[in-house]
């Protein structure tokens, strides 16, 4: 039953952004929503082997353009994608939250609930957005590390 509820929400999201409700788009949204970490295109390709690489690339590209997902880079420079909050809009993301890279499991987490510092830039500059990264151990890997010590 929860699956149908999620599909309805995702269909509304696609409608809001004037996108066709294709099975592939709905599945990508569902897969990304089910994960608590940002996901790379190669990982999505592995999880969704029936969607070809080009189609997946186009889906991720249009979702990013429309403000449905945002891109965050991991410690290796690989692009990962996470679902945006409601205040993102077409070609204008509001992803000013901490992106945490776990050095053990290599997962990337969007930590949305932290208070971010106010950004001030020198005169003449205009900051439209900013990204803050942190690296270390996620709770799961930190717990494993504590047990090993």
- SSE ordering: HHEHHEEEEEH
Low-confidence blocks of residues: 1-6
- Quaternary class: single chain
Determine the strand fraction and express it as a percent band.
15-25%
Backbone CA Rg: 17 Å
Average pLDDT number: 86
Shape: globular
The fold-level CATH name is Arc Repressor Mutant, subunit A
CATH class: Mainly Alpha
> In whole angstroms, how far apart are the ends?
43 Å
Biggest sheet architecture? 3 strands, antiparallel
Could you name the CATH homologous superfamily?
Answer: Winged helix-like DNA-binding domain superfamily/Winged helix DNA-binding domain
What share of the residues lie within helices? 25-40%
User: Number of DSSP helices?
Assistant: 5
How many structural domains does the protein architecture include?
Answer: 1
The spatial strand order of the largest sheet comes to: 1-3-2
Q: Would you report the number of β strands?
A: 6
Identify the CATH architecture: Orthogonal Bundle
Secondary-structure-based class equals: alpha+beta
Task: Pick out its properties.
Arc Repressor Mutant, subunit A; 6 strands; 3-stranded antiparallel beta sheet; 3-stranded mixed beta sheet; single chain; alpha+beta; disordered N terminus; 149 residues
Describe the fold and architecture.
With 149 residues, this protein is α+β, with helices and mostly antiparallel strands. The chain has a single domain, classed as Orthogonal Bundle (Arc Repressor Mutant, subunit A). The chain is 39% helix and 17% strand. It has 5 helices and 6 strands, in the order ααβααβββββα. The protein has helices at 2-16, 23-34, 41-47, 53-66, 139-148, and strands at 39-40, 69-73, 79-83, 98-102, 108-111, 132-136. A 3-stranded antiparallel beta sheet has the order 1-3-2. A hairpin with a 5-residue loop joins β2 (69-73) and β3 (79-83). The chain is globular and about 50 Å long.
């Amino acid at each position: 039953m929860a699956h149908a509820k999620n599909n309805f929400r995702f269909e509304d999201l696609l409608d809001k952004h004037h996108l066709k409700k294709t099975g592939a788009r709905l599945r990508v949204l569902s897969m990304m929503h089910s994960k608590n970490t940002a996901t790379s295109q190669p990982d999505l390709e592995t999880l969704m082997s029936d969607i070809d690489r080009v189609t997946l690339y186009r889906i991720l590209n249009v979702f990013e353009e429309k403000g449905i997902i945002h891109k965050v880079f991991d410690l290796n420079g690989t692009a990962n994608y996470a679902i945006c909050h409601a205040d993102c809009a077409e070609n204008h993301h509001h992803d000013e939250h901490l992106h945490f890279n776990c050095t053990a499991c290599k997962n990337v987490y969007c930590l949305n609930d932290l208070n971010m510092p106010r950004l001030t830039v020198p005169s003449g500059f205009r900051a439209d957005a900013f990204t803050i990264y942190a690296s270390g151990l996620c709770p799961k890997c930190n717990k494993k590390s504590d047990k090993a010590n």
